[in-house]
């Protein structure tokens, strides 16, 4: 994995209709032309490890690929109004935004789109300890369906971080940028990990990436040439910052790790990740599954029972372990979450091995792992929804070898593994069965149902 920063490329804007149109919109909005352009891709989880407390306190092994769909920012520095940060957006239903560059306020109670921009801006500002920043005019565009589980929000955070870095004329590696953007996105109130930001910066065209943490690193995973990945939008929007669903799962994984560690005589108060327990015990994932099944019971744990198991008070549980929007949770499903995390980690390794070995039936084997993953997401992690389950079943009946939800869940998209020669028929059948006549997806060809391929990571474009 290269340590250098994101690439800067010259571009003939006149040869790119999308850039040319947006350049004219920028000129109309701000009375000048953009100084440079930034692109950051969305991402697709092919199969993943869900225990995601923090970037440096994370489990490992997530197989992702970035998408051709992306967020883009078009930037012009404003030297005569040095403290004004003005952000305009192309997407019709959202409003423009402006603020002072030195008084950044991110309201966690109202997860508005511009807060994601502010997260990236603030992350770079705080990393370098800067004050009196130069203001910017920014125009935001994107073709990642919002609230769809394809990381449109993280792409915007990454764009904003890279834009701010470029305006300042400073340098950071891709790894540093990914870590800063992952950390800064938590200003929005979501206890996410770093996989979205990592693939946005570390992606390379033509290959998926196995993303691992502590330390952050990426390994190429060459996908079978005879298969395509198809994204299908359930048309159920899920803004993970607007609910506690995501953070509750994070806390359940954290509590499961602490209970397992205490039972095994480890220093449980220092443990945050399920992966840490396995690593400290020095056993395989299959063995760790047996340990979890032996120690944890399937019935939900009350906060009182968690406190008894750990030997702490409820006040200590609330203030030392739980996040603000999980402190009133009355039941934690520790057994189910631990089983999902350990089994999903094993599937990631199996997925990588199949891609490396390249057996004749690789597509079928990979598809079955994706099917297993969705069942685990649905039944153990409980992050699916009826529409996602219906769409997964529809995709399988239409010819997908495997299909699963992608992203945080509770809405958003599925990703399906489809043989290339079956792709046209697959797309037609899914469109007819799920979208046609249902009122779902106003633009099924563009935003609801489309094939994708591994794309490149974040870039800075300078007009040639």
Automatic annotation (TrEMBL):
GO MF annotation list: ATP binding; galactokinase activity
InterPro entries for this protein: Galactokinase, GHMP_kinase_C_dom, GHMP_kinase_C_sf, GHMP_kinase_N_dom, GHMP_knse_ATP-bd_CS, Mevalonate/galactokinase, Ribosomal_Su5_D2-typ_SF, Ribsml_uS5_D2-typ_fold_subgr
Gene Ontology biological process terms in this record: galactose metabolic process
Occurrences of domain GHMP kinase C-terminal (ranges): 364-422
Cellular component GO terms, alphabetical: cytosol
Alphabetical UniProt keywords: ATP-binding, Kinase, Nucleotide-binding, Transferase
One Pfam family recorded for the sequence: GHMP_kinases_N
Keyword Transcription: no
Chain ranges of the GHMP kinase N-terminal domain: 115-202
Record has Nucleotidyltransferase as a keyword: no
Stated family: Belongs to the GHMP kinase family. GalK subfamily.
Protein name in UniProt: N-acetylgalactosamine kinase
Organism (species): Octodon degus (Degu)
Gene: Galk2
């Amino acid at each position: 994995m290269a340590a250098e920063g994101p690439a800067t490329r010259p571009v003939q804007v006149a040869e790119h209709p999308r850039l040319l149109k947006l350049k004219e919109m920028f000129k109309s909005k701000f009375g000048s032309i953009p100084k440079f352009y930034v692109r950051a891709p969305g991402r697709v989880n092919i199969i993943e490890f869900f225990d995601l407390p923090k970037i440096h306190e994370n489990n490992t092994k997530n197989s992702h690929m970035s998408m051709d769909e992306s967020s883009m920012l078009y930037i012009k520095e404003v030297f005569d109004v040095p403290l004004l940060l003005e952000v305009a957006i192309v997407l019709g239903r959202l409003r423009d935004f402006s603020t002072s560059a030195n008084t950044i306020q991110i309201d966690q109670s109202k997860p508005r789109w511009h807060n994601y921009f502010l997260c990236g801006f603030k992350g770079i500002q705080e990393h370098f300890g800067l004050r009196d920043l130069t203001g910017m005019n920014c125009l935001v565009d994107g073709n990642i369906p919002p609230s769809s589980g394809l990381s449109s929000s993280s792409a915007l955070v990454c764009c904003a971080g890279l834009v701010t870095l470029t305006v300042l004329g400073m340098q950071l590696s891709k790894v540093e940028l990914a870590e800063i953007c992952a950390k800064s996105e938590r200003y929005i109130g979501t206890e996410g990990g770093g996989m979205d930001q990592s693939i946005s910066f570390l992606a390379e065209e033509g290959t998926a990436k196995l993303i691992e943490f502590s330390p952050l690193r990426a390994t190429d995973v060459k996908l079978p040439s005879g298969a395509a990945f198809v994204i299908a939008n359930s048309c159920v929007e899920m803004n993970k910052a607007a609910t506690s669903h995501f953070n509750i799962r994070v806390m359940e994984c954290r509590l499961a790790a602490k209970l397992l560690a205490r039972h095994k005589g480890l220093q449980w108060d220092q443990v945050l990740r399920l992966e840490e327990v396995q690593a400290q015990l020095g056993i395989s994932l299959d063995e760790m599954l047996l340990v979890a099944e032996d120690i944890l019971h399937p019935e939900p744990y009350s906060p009182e029972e968690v406190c008894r198991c750990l030997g702490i008070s409820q006040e200590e549980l609330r203030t030392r372990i739980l996040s603000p929007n999980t402190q009133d949770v009355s039941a934690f499903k520790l057994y189910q979450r631990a089983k999902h995390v350990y089994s999903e980690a094993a599937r990631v390794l199996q997925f990588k091995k199949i891609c490396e070995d390249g057996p004749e039936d690789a597509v079928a084997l990979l598809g079955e792992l994706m099917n297993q993953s969705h069942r685990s997401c649905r039944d153990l992690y409980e992050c699916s929804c009826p529409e996602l389950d219906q769409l997964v079943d529809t995709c399988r009946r239409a010819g997908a070898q495997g299909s699963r939800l992608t992203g945080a869940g509770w809405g958003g998209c599925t990703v399906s593994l489809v043989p290339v020669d079956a792709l046209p028929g697959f797309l037609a059948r899914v469109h007819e069965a799920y979208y046609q006549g249902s009122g779902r997806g106003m633009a099924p060809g563009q935003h609801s149902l489309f094939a994708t391929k591994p794309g490149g990571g974040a870039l800075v474009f300078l007009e040639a």
